[in-house]
User: What shape does this take?
Amino acid sequence: MNYQNDTAYFARMIEYKKFKENAPHALTLKHYTELMDSKHIVLVRGQIDPDRLDVKEAQFLVNQLKLYYMDINYHKLVRKFHERPNDFDYNDILKSSQIG
Assistant: This one.
């Protein structure tokens, strides 16, 4: 995921490995933050590339994004990834989501 100017861009891992930041976007989420301070809500609009992602996969990614950025316990893993990448172990993500 790449995040710029209130927009989150998701690419398929295989395409990201090949093209890095130029990988085609499978899912784009635009966050509208104008009501954040006054109403405590953020509106989100998503756009899916159907050649790269189906609706269920996109919903899963959105739910994971919410979980890892809005739940303090899950967000610790995100912070660790960014602040101490040498200590980060992707198995912690798998364990936290009960995948592994």
Observations:
- The first helix runs from residue 13 to 19.
- The mean pLDDT is 91.
- The radius of gyration is 15 Å.
